[in-house]
Every structure is written in C-alpha cells, then in structure tokens.
# Entry
Amino acid sequence: MKINIFDSKKELYDAVALYVIDKVKSNPEIHLGLATGSTPVPLYERLIIDHKVNHTSYKKVKSFNLDEYIGLPRTHEQSYYTFMNNNLFKHIDITETYIPNGEASDILAEAKSYKELLEREGVDLQILGIGSNGHIGFNEPNTPFDSHVHIVDLAESTIKDNARFFEGNLDLVPKKAITMGIKDIIAAKEIVLIATGKAKSKAINEVVNGKVDTFVPATILQKHPNVHLYLDKDAASKL
Ligand code: PGA
# Structure
C-alpha cells in the first residue's frame, strides 16, 4: 500500500488528478471505476479543467460506477446517475458510462447483469472514497469479502452521513442501495483511495494498521497488491 499524505486538500487533489490524467493519457481505453459523494468532486473538477485546457480525451474510456440508491428516480439531483452527469460526464467527451440502475423493476436481475458486466469488462483503475464507518462503495460493516454486486440496507451511520445531501433530513435519505460487492471492487487492477478530514481518520488508521476484518470493509485493501492512498493531514492524523 502506497501512502501519500498532503498538507492541504489542494495539493492532494492536484496530485491525484495528475495521477489519473496520466493513466488516461497512457491508456486512452482505460476502464475507470468511479465513485460519488463529496470526496471525488475536486478530482472531477480537475479532470474537467484538464479536458477543456489540455484536451485529454475520454472518448474511448469506459467508466463503471460503484453504486446507486434504490428508491430515487435517476432524474433526482442526488441520484448517482444525475450526480455523475452533473459533476463529470456532461463536461467531458466520455460516451460509455455504466451505473447500476436503482430503478430496475427486477433489482436482483440488475445486480446479476452489473456483476457480469464488471467481469466481462474489468476495471483498470478504481477511484474510492471511504465511509466514516470504513465502508467502500455501499459495503457496510460485516459485508462478506467475497460479495458481488448486491442490494444493501444502508447503515444508520451512512444515512446520517449522507443526510447533508438531503436537506439534513434523515427521512429523505434512501435506505437501500445497489452496490458493487467487495470482491468486484478489489478485482480492479489498481485502486486509488482518497480521504480527507478528521471524520475519516479512524477508518484510515484501521485500513493501514488494523486487522483485516469485515467489520471495517476497507481493511481488505491490505490484501490488494496495488493500492494508493491519497490523504490529507487530517485523514492521516491517527496514523
Ligand atoms: P463522502 O463519502 O465522499 O461523501 O465522504 C465517501 C463514502 O461514503 O464512500
């Protein structure tokens, strides 16, 4: 596990953006695993600026998102479908993007077909955030490490963490989601996990120094051969 710690968020995001852009330039057909939430937004902002200024192209890139809420129409501002369009896709020249469909009438069939898609295509570089409870994607504590795409009940702590996107109202936060499983996530050839802020420091310490245990799902990353952590000082403060 390669650990990069930065004094400021700006330095962190400048560095991680350079890293990702370099990967896209050296493999214009790269398969990117993408994440939502607050963490990747400053990265996406930099990818957009670079695309506009330096013309890095995503025409042949394919992207695969980690997860999607169940129970929100995709037109809802907080659906990850709309989030990805607003924060990245509509600003660059990417054409082939995949996000699990949280509105599928047969959600189990959707989970199966997203798993098969991931197996067929494979992810080269997975961008990850981390929940304050150590979740990756929406794989909450105690998710088996051999899980594939599945339907989850969001943890109490995740509903609280995400309420800020829903007017602070816990009742408006969807309670279920469809997510890549842990096995799908760690099948990526390379993983870049970004974490900022003190609220993530405990989970980050577990990822680096803790025992590999399903109780903190991200600890599985210790077993992956090619993981890069990008941390600001606050997220790294318990290391
Ligand atoms: P955040 O979420 O980036 O909004 O903090 C991260 C996550 O839950 O994985």
